[in-house]
Write a structure and sequence with these properties.
The complex is a heterodimer.
Chain A lengths: L1 H26 L6 H8 L21 E6 L17 H7 L2 E6 L3 H9 L5 E4 L1 H9 L3 E2 L23 E2 L2 E2 L2 E7 L1 E5 L24 E4 L5 H11 L13 H14 L3 E5 L2 H10 L4 E4 L1 H10 L4 E4 L5 E11 L5 H11 L2 H11 L2 E2 L13 H4 L5 H4 L2 E3 L19 H12 L1
Parallel strand pairs in A: 1-2, 1-3, 9-10, 9-11, 13-15
Antiparallel strand pairs in A: 3-13, 4-13, 5-6, 7-13, 7-14, 8-11, 8-12
Helix pairs in contact in A: 4-5, 6-7, 7-14, 8-9
Chain B lengths: L1 H9 L1 H30 L3 E2 L6 E2 L5 H8 L1 H35 L2 H12 L6 H12 L4 H6 L11 H25 L3 H9 L4 H30 L2 H6 L6 H9 L5 H23 L8
Chain lengths: 410, 286
């Protein structure tokens, strides 16, 4: 009994000490106001931490750890004929290990661990990584294939800051509307079908399980409710944001399940538990290859959200030469064509179009069609300074988006 | 070597220190230390844009957890799921354990113990995904129920409760079996000799003596269900539980402090539960 009491006393003392620590660090002036400066940094005067790009390439360090979207770094384990990692390993001696991430948020977190060298970041992750100093500027002179990248992808708001390049464009594409052609009739041409309260497909609709999906609802409202005045689905003020969130709360009734794991989405379509919802081209390809159900994936009339991905180098990387070699390899005409065809997106390298097995591939995916991509709103990180340039209102930032997303799911 | 052992022989205290330092280090540093850091970080916040942790003392996270109706709903839902799973496990496990302890022959008993333990050899994920394909639209459950005009629960909370009950059942059967085995047969005979029928014997003799064992099992099933977030992702359809909120806040939102504050909730629930349980003497049955 005495032993027990002593234990209680010790743990109570430990708790007090901990609380005291927490209190004293609050008093420190070094950390106060950091939240404020973070928000300012995101605005017009966005100043990333001072970091230098690599000046010259060394010899490969023999190892490379990649964070990528599923399908971006294939080594033949999914399909023996789909392999652009092994040739890279043979040519450079850099042994590759790949970590696939289901959402941009996971990518940001993985990069924060400091255990990875390169990442295929979408626009809703890239600026966050730059601002936190987790990735460093990229010296594009060390990536010879960069010269052939489409100009429409170079030095954009999501891969450069103040004229400094932070990465190598990988490719771009749109989030599509996939439906089971045997069940969903007539063929849908609008996102309205996933928001329709009287939908006959209630309980069999799916949506992407990430706060960024709020932008899909905002895009639909932008086209159907002009009086809300939405100009950019990633720049939503109070009223616009509430409208988008309300739309998604109503949509929740129709949803069978949300997906972030693409295998789960694939399986749900295969078994018929899901017949309609947002998807990536690669999932549509997988479902078609399974041959259990017939599906079609289309770009609806409202346009869509989408991605433009960038390979970025981790600041703390111990394998920067391998990282640069990889970036040069993945946008080389052949590898870039392979990954673009496998994932179902437009390649970044203009010479890739000659290397695709399907010669009309670049036309199908509108590789050089800037007018098409004007309809696609690439994922971006919402911040309090409205991305559409409004200065008279504050926009909802990504923290608000994540809280709202949990409320939507209920 | 010889000198070393003689030194040890002469200094019993040193012996004790050498023996206990490793396990104590693990317990204090790894286990309690991690818990302490978790609780401490619940009082910090994150920079919204960069996602870096800001080490400034704040109670906002706890305020958010308490004031948000979403979080309250999810917490209540999670506790209800954990309670349902525990009740279902207890109801299924008791007759099974009673048969094993009191009715079966020693040989059958050994086989039954092995049968109860076997599912624990398969991976949790394999079992959960197996249930996913069984509960799917074209799965075995619908196929079996179809001829009698019924269909399965589909993906959702009921499916989650079913799968969790399946997963944690062995953790209920084993303590109850151990508890019943300790119950002397002579008590049952005495009850019968005094004229009690089976029902009366169960109510007045078996149930009170086995209750602490059931509670011991309930500690497992309840705490395991309370923290689970994977099963609900696999078979839970669109529903989310407390674990998903914690995962979402540490993963998607990258708000570790808020996740830590949320993680304090199941810890608190378990503390209350264990304090209640302590009175039943179930902790001696673990």
């Amino acid at each position: 009994m005495t032993g027990n009491r002593r234990l209680v006393a010790i743990s109570a003392a430990a708790m007090l000490a901990l609380v005291a620590c927490g209190g004293s660090s609050g008093g420190g002036d070094t950390t106060t106001g950091a939240t404020g400066s973070g928000n300012e940094a995101a605005g017009q005067a966005f100043t990333p931490p001072k970091l230098k790009a690599l000046d010259k390439l060394g010899t490969g360090e023999g190892e490379l750890n990649i964070v990528a979207w599923a399908g971006y770094a294939e080594d033949g384990s999914t399909d023996p004929s789909v392999d652009w990692v092994t040739p890279f390993e043979k040519a450079t001696g850099c042994q590759v290990s790949v970590k696939t991430a289901p959402t941009s948020d996971d990518m940001v977190n993985l990069m924060k661990t400091g255990q990875y060298d390169v990442v295929s970041a979408s626009g809703d992750a890239s600026l966050r990584l730059i601002a936190s100093g987790d990735v460093e500027p990229v010296n594009t002179d060390l990536v010879p294939n960069y010269a052939d990248v489409f100009d429409g992808l170079k030095m954009k708001a999501w891969n450069s800051v103040q004229g400094v390049s932070y990465g190598i464009p990988h490719g771009r594409g749109a989030n599509l509307l996939m439906y089971n052609t045997d069940v969903v009739k007539p063929a849908p041409t609008s996102w309205g079908v996933v928001f329709d309260q009287a939908s006959p497909y209630k309980g069999k609709v799916t949506a992407y399980d990430s706060p960024i999906y709020i932008a899909d609802a905002a895009l639909y409202l932008m086209k159907t409710k002009p009086d809300l005045g939405i100009k950019n689905p990633y720049a939503l003020d109070d009223k616009q944001f509430t409208a988008a969130v309300d739309l998604l709360k109503k949509q929740n009734v129709l949803i069978g399940e949300y997906w972030s794991d693409y295998l789960k989405a694939q399986q749900a379509f295969d078994t018929g538990d899901t017949v309609l919802g947002t998807t990536w081209q690669i999932i549509a390809n997988y479902v078609a290859a399974d041959k259990k159900v017939k599906v079609e994936a289309v770009l609806p009339s409202e346009g869509s959200t989408g991605w433009s991905d960038t390979w970025m180098v981790a600041t703390k990387s111990q394998h920067k030469s391998c990282a640069y070699l990889w970036m040069n390899h993945i946008i080389s005409p052949k590898a870039n064509a392979e990954v673009a065809e496998w994932f179902g997106e437009a390649p970044a390298n203009s010479k890739s179009c000659a290397e695709t097995s399907d010669k009309s591939f670049c036309d199908t995916f509108h590789a050089s069609d800037e007018a098409y991509f004007d309809q696609v709103w690439y994922w971006n990180t919402p911040i309090t300074q409205c991305l559409d340039g409004r200065t008279d209102v504050q926009c909802k930032d990504y923290g608000d988006w994540t809280t709202a997303w949990q409320e939507i799911k209920g | 070597m010889r000198r070393f052992s003689s030194v040890l022989h002469r200094h019993p205290r040193l012996r004790l220190v050498l023996l206990l330092s490793a396990p104590m280090l693990v317990l204090v540093v790894v286990y309690l230390g991690a818990l302490a850091v978790l609780l401490l970080s619940a009082f910090w916040s994150t920079d919204v844009f960069t996602g870096n942790v800001v080490k400034t003392f704040t109670l906002d996270n706890f305020r958010d957890v308490v004031s948000s109706s979403t979080y309250r709903t999810v917490i209540v839902r999670t506790v209800l799921v954990a309670v349902s799973v525990t009740v279902i496990c207890a109801v299924l496990a008791f007759p099974m354990a009673f048969y094993m302890a009191k009715v079966a022959s020693p040989r059958a008993r050994r086989l039954l113990v092995v049968a109860v333990l076997t599912p624990l050899w398969a991976s949790y994920l394999v079992k959960a995904y197996a249930w996913r394909s069984m509960l799917a639209g074209d799965g075995v459950v619908n196929w079996a129920l179809g001829p009698i005009g019924m269909h399965g629960p589909g993906f959702g909370l009921p499916a989650t409760v079913i799968v969790l009950s399946y997963l944690w059942l062995p953790y209920m059967i084993l303590p109850v079996y151990a508890g019943l085995e300790r119950l002397p047969d002579s008590l049952l005979e005495a009850s019968g000799d005094l004229g009690a029928k089976a029902g009366r014997t169960f109510r007045s003799v078996v149930a009170p003596l086995a209750f602490p064992a059931v509670v011991a099992g309930a500690i497992f099933t309840f705490s395991l269900s309370l923290g689970d977030y994977i099963t609900v992702q696999i078979v839970g359809g669109k529903s989310q539980l407390l674990g998903n909120l914690i995962q979402g806040n540490s993963g998607a939102a990258n708000n570790l402090p808020l996740a830590a504050a949320l993680a304090a909730v199941p810890v608190l629930i378990m503390v209350v539960f264990l304090l209640g349980v302590r009175r039943t003497g179930a902790l001696d049955n673990l």
